Every structure is written in structure tokens, then in C-alpha cells.
């Protein structure tokens, strides 16, 4: 997730910083300097009536321990509504969230990391994984994940790049060769390493007072932008294919169904897009009815997003 998921976030953060500066200027009275203040007596263990937490049953509540084990009570979390930053796991910005769209569930579900992770797949009772791939520029990419299939349950998504299957690198393989590998694999324990959707990106936007975002699409392809709309301000481009709305796969759905997803979403909405020419290449050998009938269009489980990337 970027530092400012939307341009609106950045503007709000700038106003908040200015307000904080003004308040600190008027609310910080100058304190008279006090001289010759007697220093406190030196610390002595005999003065402590009760043992410190660090000495009681090994309990220690330093800021580092709190952030590691109870992040919801950390100092960063208590300031979540007043600051903007990346939800990083380390560094000075760890744990902080952007003021408007940072808490959006759709933004979290649609997060594209481009990271690498390993999945363990199996076959269903019919001996199928529920997965179709296509070769693009010497890489193997997922172009169909069947609903309720082992591939869907494992968290595979349209556009994921398959790097290895059971420790065999598949770079340069044909679509047919990879399908043959999967058919010949054992029923259980199929180890697949993927890169998270390298061709895709997300754009987070805000609806206006009329509930519009500011773009038009046909057959899932963005064809026009409305001047000075949230879509235009946040860098949405034309000739891009809509893949997800708030993390939900809409590949194969009719335009009216995609429109309904956008209309029913909250004011902050995130769409996942891919260049149209890449999308067309990935699905050119597939019947459109397969995408509509068999593609997994379920809302992603939040737990899937916690998969380990490394």
C-alpha cells in the first residue's frame, strides 16, 4: 500500500499537519525557567515498595514488546486517525494508517504486493486443481481459477505468475507443458511458488456526492475518464481491463454486474487493473463462457491476505 492511497488522503494529511502546527503555535505557552531546582535523591532499590513488572513473572511492557505482541495498544496505533503512512512492519512508519482510505477493507483485500509466496495445492475428487494458465513473455500466468476449487481455496488469483512447480522452474514453458505437469502431479502436496500479480496495479478512489467515481468502461475495459474526477486525479488510465472491485474478481462478469459492484461499494473504492493488451493475450484461447461460468467470483477471505510473502 502506498504512503497516500489516494490524492484525497494526501490533501487531508496536509491540512491536518497545518492545523497541528497552528495549534502548537497558540497552545504552547512559554514556561518560565526555574533555576536552582533541587535534584531528586538517587534511586535506591530499598525505596521500591513493589517489584517492577520486569521482575514479576518475567512480564515486560516496554514499547518494543507492546508493538510486537499487542500492536493494537501501541503508540502508533493510538495515533492511527491523526497520521498518514505505510502499514509497514518495521521502521518509523510502522503501524500507522492513512486518514481516509487506509482503513478500507477493499483496499486491504485488493492489495497487490508483487511478492513471492509458496502454496501447497491438492486435487479434488475429480483429480482437478481448478486452474488454467497461459504463457506471456516466457512466463506462466494464471488466467482462470475455478470457484470452490483447490486453487481458489489456496488463494490463487487471476494474473499470478507461477515460478516453480514442485521445485521445477517453469520459465519458458508452454501452456500445454504446464497443464501436463499439473495433471501428472500427485494428488496431494503440489508445491507451487508464485509471484503476486506482477502485471497488475490497484487504484483507490472516492465517490463524489452523486456516488460516481469518474470513469466509463465497456466489456470491462476503461474507455474514458471524467475531467477532474477522483479517477482522473488518482491516475486511472484508459485502455485498462478491470479485474477486481474491492478485491472481488469481476473477470467474465457483464458490465451491469460490474456496475452493481461499484454502486454497492462504500465511498472509498479500490479497483485492480491490467493493461488491456496483456489481458487480451491471456484469455485469447479461452471461451468467454468459461470466464463467466467457472471463474471464482467470491469475495476473498481476509485470511488469504495473510499468506506469507518472502
Mean pLDDT: 81
Q: What is the percent of helical residues?
A: 25-40%
**Broad structural category:** alpha+beta
C-alpha termini separation: 16 Å
Q: List low-confidence stretches.
A: 47-57, 75-88, 303-310
Assess the beta-strand content as a share of residues: 15-25%
Largest sheet: 6 strands, antiparallel
Q: In total, how many beta strands?
A: 12
CA gyration radius, whole angstroms:
26 Å
Shape: globular
What's the number of helices? Answer: 10
H-E order: HHHHEEEHEEHEEEEHEEHEHH
Topology overview:
Blueprint: H1 7-27, H2 63-69, H3 75-78, H4 105-109, E1 116-121, E2 131-136, E3 139-145, H5 150-154, E4 161-165, E5 168-169, H6 175-184, E6 190-195, E7 201-206, E8 215-218, E9 221-225, H7 230-233, E10 240-245, E11 248-249, H8 255-264, E12 268-275, H9 276-283, H10 288-294
Antiparallel strand pairs: 1-6, 2-3, 3-4, 4-5, 4-6, 7-12, 8-9, 10-11, 10-12
Can you walk through the features of this model?
- The chain is of the alpha+beta class and 310 residues long.
- The chain is built from 10 helices and 12 strands.
- Strands 1, 2, 3, 4, 5 and 6 form a 6-stranded antiparallel sheet that branches.
- Strand 2 and strand 3 form a beta hairpin.
- The protein starts with 6 loop residues before the first helix and ends in a 16-residue tail after the last helix.
- The C terminus is likely disordered.
Amino acid at each position: 500500500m502506498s504512503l497516500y492511497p489516494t490524492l484525497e488522503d494526501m490533501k487531508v494529511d496536509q491540512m491536518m499537519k497545518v492545523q497541528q502546527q497552528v495549534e502548537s503555535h497558540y497552545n504552547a505557552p512559554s514556561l518560565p525557567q526555574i533555576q536552582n531546582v533541587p535534584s531528586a535523591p538517587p534511586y535506591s532499590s530499598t525505596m521500591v515498595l513493589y517489584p517492577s513488572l520486569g521482575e514479576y513473572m518475567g512480564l515486560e511492557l516496554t514499547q518494543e514488546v507492546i508493538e510486537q505482541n499487542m500492536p493494537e495498544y501501541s503508540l502508533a496505533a493510538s495515533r492511527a486517525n491523526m497520521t498518514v503512512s505505510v502499514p509497514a512492519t518495521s521502521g518509523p512508519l510502522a503501524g500507522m494508517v492513512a486518514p481516509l482510505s487506509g482503513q478500507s477493507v477493499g483496499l486491504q483485500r485488493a492489495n497487490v504486493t508483487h511478492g513471492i509466496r509458496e502454496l501447497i495445492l491438492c486435487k479434488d475428487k475429480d483429480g482437478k486443481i481448478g486452474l488454467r494458465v497461459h504463457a506471456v513473455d516466457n512466463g506462466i500466468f494464471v488466467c482462470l481459477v475455478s470457484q470452490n476449487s483447490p486453487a481458489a481455496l489456496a488463494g490463487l488469483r487471476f494474473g499470478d505468475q507461477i515460478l516453480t512447480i514442485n521445485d521445477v522452474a517453469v520459465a519458458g514453458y508452454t501452456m500445454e507443458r504446464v497443464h501436463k505437469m499439473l495433471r501428472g502431479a500427485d494428488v496431494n502436496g503440489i508445491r507451487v511458488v508464485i509471484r503476486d500479480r506482477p502485471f497488475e496495479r490497484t487504484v483507490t478512489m472516492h465517490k463524489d456526492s452523486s456516488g460516481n467515481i469518474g470513469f466509463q468502461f465497456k466489456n470491462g475495459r476503461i474507455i474514458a475518464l471524467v475531467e477532474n474526477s477522483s479517477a482522473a486525479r488518482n491516475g486511472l488510465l484508459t485502455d485498462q481491463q478491470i479485474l477486481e472491485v474491492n478485491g472481488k474478481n469481476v473477470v467474465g462478469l457483464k458490465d451491469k454486474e460490474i456496475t452493481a459492484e461499484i454502486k454497492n461499494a462504500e465511498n472509498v473504492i479500490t479497483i485492480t487493473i491490467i493493461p488491456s493488451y496483456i489481458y487480451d493475450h491471456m484469455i485469447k484461447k479461452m471461451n468467454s463462457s468459461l470466464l463467466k461460468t467457472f471463474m471464482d467470483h467470491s469475495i476473498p477471505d481476509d485470511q488469504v491476505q495473510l499468506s506469507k510473502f518472502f
